[in-house]
Amino acid sequence: MINILFLGAPGSGKGTQSENIIRDYDVIQISTGDILRKAVKDGTPLGMEAKNYMTQGLLVPDTLIVEVMSERLKAEDAKNGFILDGFPRTVVQVEALDAMLEKELSYKITHVISLEVPDDIIYERITGRRSCPVCGRVYHIKFNPPKSAEACDADGEKLICRDDDTVETLSKRLKVFHESTAVIKPLYEKRGIVLSLDGTRSAADVYKKIKAFLG
Ligand code: AP5
After folding, report:
1. Which pLDDT tens digit goes with each residue over 85-102?
2. CB 127 near ligand 1, within 6 Å
3. What is the pLDDT of residue 149?
4. Is 14 a catalytic residue?
5. Residue 57: how many CA atoms within 13 Å on its side-chain side?
6. Which of 6, 52, 55, 3 lies closest to 32, judged by CA?
7. Which portions of the chain are predicted below pLDDT 70?
8. Superfamily holding 3-117+169-214
């Protein structure tokens, strides 16, 4: 059983590589960003609370995220293996995840993949990102364009830009990443399960290295 954790700045390719992995391995992707965006769209209490933080490029409070993830990880479909995309992002979340895995679940994180991409490249990636509002597939107008300029290859839906993919919000997200999230990498490095990859290489090259790591 493999349980993967992705680390990396906004736009470093966590979602893109998760799509590759779930195609080839028997694991599910658990993306806190996707869970929160769905909650916002559905107008649930979680979504109403999270919305302001997300549009400002700030982290949603740890207590909310930990509660959501504690429930999500208990679900039946997590039993074969999972990818954590976007969680944990703070030291408090790392500690909460450790406690969940140790006390409530019988899982271990087996692989941690850190995608390293400098901020200047992130700006081009995020401002050119388009995604399908229905199936969630991610594109880039230059690096991974859809076959037809504005529509999803899979279901033909009109592609959208995420609300938080503006230059202004991205600078805040990057600041939060460097201050709160980058500091958790050493915690996993101490456990000897981290692969750091040059995320500026093509998505196909990055995925080759991930496959070699996962076996
Ligand atoms: P979230 O949705 O997790 O956003 P993020 O971490 O900012 O990551 P992204 O989804 O923007 O990027 P990605 O790394 O998946 O890149 P992608 O593969 O799409 O979180 C959103 C918000 O929710 C947060 O700001 C926060 O408010 C809240 N939140 C979420 N989790 C939380 C938590 N745990 N605690 C508190 N708050 C939380 O790629 C980007 C683009 O680049 C795409 O267009 C893609 O096609 C392209 N691309 C990818 N790889 C390559 C490549 N190798 N070469 C060229 N282009 C590439």
Report:
1. 999 999 999 999 999 999
2. no
3. 83
4. yes
5. 17
6. 6
7. none
8. P-loop containing nucleotide triphosphate hydrolases (3.40.50.300)
